[in-house]
Amino acid sequence: MDNLTHSLAGLMMSRAGFDRKFAKAAPLMILAANVPDIDIVAGLGGSLSYLKWHRSYTHSLAAAPLMALLPLLFLMLFRIRPTLLGYAFSLTGVLSHLVLDWTNIYGIRMLLPFSEKWLRLDQTDVVDPWIWAALFLAIAAPALARLVGSEIGGKADKSPKRGWAWFAIIAILAYEGARYSAHSRALAVMGAHTFNGTIPKQLAAVPDRMNPFRWRGIAVGDGFVVNVQVDLATEFDPTAGRIDYTPEPSPALDAARHTPAFEEFSRFNQLPFWKLTPEPDGTLVESVDLRFGTPENTGFEARALVDAAGQVHNARFTFGVPR
Known about the structure:
Elements: H1 3-15, H2 25-34, H3 47-53, H4 64-67, H5 69-76, H6 84-103, H7 129-153, H8 161-191, E1 202-207, E2 214-221, E3 224-231, E4 242-245, H9 251-257, H10 260-268, E5 272-279, E6 282-289, E7 301-306, E8 312-318
Antiparallel strand pairs: 1-2, 2-3, 3-4, 5-6, 6-7, 7-8
Helix pairs in contact: 1-2, 1-6, 1-7, 1-8, 2-5, 2-6, 7-8
């Protein structure tokens, strides 16, 4: 998830009761809920370096106990004494980060260093406005209650921050459960149909950012891929999707595949689609991740130009503009 979501989730956990046990629970939990993203420094090495290291070791369960130490060490700079209970709270914040990242389409390598497998539930987008809404409401409501109480009673009453924090936590848990159910239903609806006259080898459902009932279905078959809208509120039509055919093997594709940019991207790409486009000075080779775009409107992709002699030029990875 985005760092605003992680920060507000940490704040809600602190208000839910942690602040009764640790004096500086709010900054501790906010820091802990964000500390796995310390790996964003890899972006200084470019987009390919970021792709390689983001959501890797700092996001693993094995590293979580170490990550939980960092917020406590930072707070020590401000003469805040660490405690065992504070460490437990910090670890909870770190684990909340891992769980939230696990729910979305980007995924997380939670099992490093034992496995490099990307784990993902595909039930939420990386940025989810409904989760934002629950968190912002839990911040705004106590502030409004305090303002109204002050105006009516002549003094500022203690605002119900704890109750609204629990509201946000429960609302998010319920929302994630509903999203999980809707995602499973979308896959079941697709699984009951054939695509392009055959049973697909792989099915995926990419969440719509705004509408929890709407998903972009992806059916991968032998030599083709279908992108089709799945709206759980209406009848599903498997023939309404767009069919794109994968290219035949070629020397240009093989040449691009073995460049560092394509090799690194292939480790991340969970739904690959290849494109070959003739150009005046060669062939444009593209590898697309269908979670973040379509063959027509690419998002995350590796691309390179391969000339007639088989030489690869300007091989690179780009995040593009996800759709």
